[in-house]
Amino acid sequence: MRESRWRTWAGTVGCAPARTVRPTGEEEIVRAVRKAARDGLSVRAAGTGHSFNRLVPTSGVLVDLTGYTGIVALDTAAGEVTVRAGTRFTELCAALHRRGMALPNIGTLAEQTVAGALSTGNHGTGLRHTALSGGVTRVRLVTADGSVRTVGPQDEAEPGLWGAVRCGLGTLGILSTVTLRCVPQFRLRMQLASERLDALLERFGDWAAGSEHPSLNWLPWSDQVTVRSVDRTCEAATPGAGLRRLTATLDEVRCGLTGQVARLAGAEAVPRLTARLGGLWPDGPYVDAGHRVFTFVQPVRFLAMEHALPLERTPEALRELRTVLRQLGVYSPYSVLVRVGAADDVALSPAYGRQTGYVNLTVPRAAGQVEILRAAEPVLRAFGARPHWGKAHTATAEVLAPRYPRWEEFQRVRSRLDPGGMFTGPYTDTVLGPVPAPEPAVAGR
After folding, report:
1. pLDDT of 210-260, one tens digit each?
2. Which domains does the chain have, with CATH numbers?
């Protein structure tokens, strides 16, 4: 008898696994993997379901990690925190804050689990900061044979494993615990400015380097962008900072309502509807604890696509995107979000080997605007983009392999750790291809 269906956070992708396991300890994960091996079933791990594609769905065993949470150890002197894989950022950041510590950079969605975010290449923004994977110092990994490995940068037993395990799409095993760098807690000051898009694109590199955590929001029918500059400060927290942070959540609600109205009025009416509903809530400068400035509550379900481009090609890509979206004439109430990041050395990280511009497009999940994503994807792909592993895209292994210099190295690690393909699914077969046959042993080694 199959378990009840599992669905993603957005509610657009689901599955009916043969068995669902909800561990609260590492040994339960080990037992689940070993039993799946005996029963000949595939295994996929799930967190809060914030991927927008078929990354998790399986007809085999679903290991739901959302009950496997909490801090295992905090070493303030070394600046490291070890957490269980299903821990959400919201609880991790709050716990660190109570102890005078913080993560140096995170994305906007605090409800994601640490393992899920790590495995798909999640990131915040800032050229001084890599994706989350760059802040990992070691992990514990449950592999296909039911063994548990502690993997770190000095690991020599499995060549290439450290470069692979920090963004592995769940194909190398199940992450049990993750150790992350942390820093003394800090406050951030967020301020907004408006600028013409063309002027900003002309100085894009200087803009990207001008703030520790820059981002911009752009409504494609407009020639203006809203620029966010977020930087560390010694200023006291702004009175009522929590209410100022609520602005972002209210804007999400506005976008959701606009999308619903657009179902009746037509997506071409989105600019008019946005003008009528926008500007209802103040969104001025404020200071607050770092994790509270980085994140906000996102109550409205949506679909998102993001691509990571070479930083220097991002302005050109945005100009071309403007042309294509205006020709399409169908608009989303959500703005295009642009962030930046440092290069890293993780084999399948979208930021591998290059400073990166991240271009994110979001659409209402039920407003018939998915065609916006279909129109935008080939534009971004033409500029050397790599898709976010957890968001909507149509790339296949044939498209992706040439974009990752360490692709073959990752595949060799995968074939050694999971030669039987236990940790595969329809999505991984599409984006990574089948598990390669293990390389034959060389005599004398």
Report:
1. 999 999 999 999 999 999 999 999 999 999 888 887 888 888 899 988 888
2. 6-65 (3.30.43.10), 66-184+401-429 (3.30.465.10), 187-395 (3.40.462.10)
